[in-house]
Design a protein that fits this description.
Blueprint (H helix, E strand, L loop, with lengths): L3 E7 L16 E2 L2 E2 H11 L4 E6 L4 H11 L4 E3 L6 H6 L11 E6 L7 H12 L4 E7 L8 E4 L5 E5 L6 H4 L3 E10 H8 L16 H7 L4 E5 L11 H21 L17 E2 L4 E2 L4 E2 L4 E2 L4 E2 L4 E2 L3 E2 L4 E2 L4 E2 L4 E2 L4 E13 L4 E13 L4 E2 L4 E3 L9 E3 L4 E2 L4 E3 L2 E3 L4 E2 L4 E2 L8 E2 L11 H14 L9
Parallel strand pairs: 1-4, 1-6, 4-5, 7-11, 12-15, 13-16, 14-17, 15-18, 16-19, 17-20, 18-21, 19-22, 20-22, 21-22, 22-23, 23-24, 23-26, 24-27, 25-28, 26-29, 27-30, 28-31, 30-32
Antiparallel strand pairs: 2-3, 6-10, 7-10, 8-9
The structure holds uridine-diphosphate-N-acetylglucosamine and calcium ion.
């Protein structure tokens, strides 16, 4: 197989997004759109991806450099059209041999298979291949004029099309593949004598045919190549991504009674046999093992949930939460950077941050790991089988030994040895009859129409 390269166009200003953030850094499934294109290029085996940005886009250039390396970020000085944008990658790809694919960074959901189909046409000898689709409303798209044998004769932009050509439903997605050297060679001959006065990448079709080369169409679905120009379109793409993810997970054996209320990220991993109740959000970096139950209204990010564990309802797992097999994390429990051992339980109203909880330990309601002194963070370790009574503050760094027992309401600042009891709260005092006498005294004052000193 020839070496592959990607040219990712991201120079558009994205004014219709009306956002200070560069358009292609808006996220779909928790991943910036630009990173989707880079991931597609990687999945297609591209050796390098060159990202074309506009001038004065420092945030975008920086993000692109992180993804593909600074040497692969090039600037298109002026927005003179898609051919001019691709041409900006000429220097970065000088001397390379192989095949290139042009992707738009604002079109994040192109499936790998579609890219493979485009490359396959080039492998078979076509000079250029574009991804085409049947458009429901083709109005703004370039139309694909095909010949009797289904190969491509020309791409006509809507502004330049005749009535007859406007009736064509087959539209250009913008994704194009070609041999690298041929592509840059043909680009030299692109002119801007069209309705928009732009250099059209689509002119490569006619130019390739002029050299006796075949131009091909590879087909895909419209939803695979939808682009984003506005916040509403971004939400539309997010919806498509979520739907696809839900359908895939259900097909793989995940139980979801209300899938339309569950949100996933691009990298969410859910094993077959997991049940997810309504209104759960999976931010990035989550994996859930078989048999686990994620109950309603939970939010998970950067967390690992073990086999048969129960999380929620109303639980929050933050990055570094590792929930062991058959462990329980209940309502209003927040876990951050804590490993929870097998079968351990924290069922109610707790903050567990930075530490570890041994297998079979029981964390009582209202337990707080006090992990931060305003400057530094410290770890809390709760040993295997330990019991932490309700409303306990564990002031880190602190260790409760295995099998240790902490009385409710304690503020624990020192380590508790294994199997020991620690109680750290005021000792209870009692006075017989005190309450009755108190009530008698106060009601007498009130009846007399008076108030004690200082009452309002
Ligand atoms: C382009 C295609 C059209 C296709 C449509 C699909 C051409 C001439 N037309 O039209 O056939 O149906 O996409 O959406 O190619 N860009 C740059 N620099 C430029 C111009 C564009 O980086 O100078 C980038 C944009 O940011 C965008 C992409 O290229 O991501 C497409 O540009 P756009 O202006 O949206 O092209 P269309 O006119 O929609
Ligand atoms: Ca467009």
């Amino acid at each position: 197989m020839a070496d592959r390269f990607a040219i990712i166009l991201a120079a558009g200003k994205g004014t219709r997004m009306k956002s200070p953030r560069p358009k292609v850094l808006h996220e779909v499934g928790g991943r910036p759109m630009l990173a989707w294109s880079v991931a597609l290029a990687e999945a297609l085996g591209c050796k390098r991806s060159v990202v074309v940005v506009g001038p004065d886009m420092p945030a975008l250039s920086e993000a692109a450099a992180k993804l593909v390396g600074a040497a692969n970020v090039v600037v298109q000085r002026e927005q003179l059209g898609t051919a001019n944008a691709v041409d900006a990658a000429r220097g970065a790809l000088s001397g390379v041999e192989g095949q290139a694919i042009v992707l738009y960074a604002d079109t994040p959901l192109v499936p790998k298979e579609a890219g493979e189909r485009a490359f396959a046409e080039i492998e078979k000898g076509a000079g250029v291949c574009v991804l085409g689709f049947k458009a429901k409303l083709p109005n703004r798209y370039g139309r694909l004029v095909t010949t009797g044998d289904g190969s491509l004769e020309a791409i006509v932009e809507a502004n330049d099309a005749s009535e007859e050509q406007l009736a064509i439903e087959l539209a250009n997605s913008g994704v194009m593949a070609a041999p690298v050297r041929l592509m840059f060679d043909l680009l030299k001959d692109v002119k801007n004598d069209n309705a928009k006065g732009e250099y059209y990448l689509t002119d490569l079709v006619g130019l390739a045919r002029g050299r006796g080369l075949k131009a091909a169409v590879a087909h895909c679905e419209e939803r695979d190549v939808l682009g984003v120009n506005s916040q509403a379109e971004l939400a539309g793409i997010e919806h498509i991504f979520q739907q696809a993810m839900r359908e895939k997970l259900m097909a793989d054996g995940v139980t979801m009674p209300a899938p339309e209320t569950v949100y996933f990220s691009h990298d969410t991993k859910i094993a077959p046999g997991v049940t997810i109740e309504p209104n759960v959000v999976f931010a990035t970096g989550v994996s859930v093992a078989s048999g686990a139950l994620i109950r309603a209204f939970s939010h998970l990010e950067g967390a690992k949930v073990g086999e048969g564990a129960i999380v929620g309802p109303y639980a929050r797992l933050r990055p570094g939460a590792v929930i062991g097999r058959h462990a329980h994390i209940g309502n209003f429990v927040e876990v951050k950077n804590v490993t929870v051992g097998e079968g351990a339980k924290a069922n109610h109203l707790s903050y567990l941050g930075d530490g570890e909880i041994g297998a079979g330990a029981n964390i009582g309601a209202g337990t707080i790991f006090c992990n931060y002194d305003g400057f530094f963070k410290y770890r809390t370790v709760v040993g295997e089988g330990a019991f932490v009574g309700s409303n306990t503050s564990l002031v880190a760094p602190v260790t409760i030994g295995a099998g240790g027992y902490v009385g409710s309401g304690s503020v624990i600042v020192e380590d508790v040895p294994a199997d020991a009891l620690a109680i750290a709260r005021g000792r209870q005092a009692g006075k017989d009859g005190w309450a009755k006498a108190f009530r008698a005294e106060k009601s007498a004052v009130k009846k007399a129409g008076k108030k004690p000193d200082g009452a309002i």
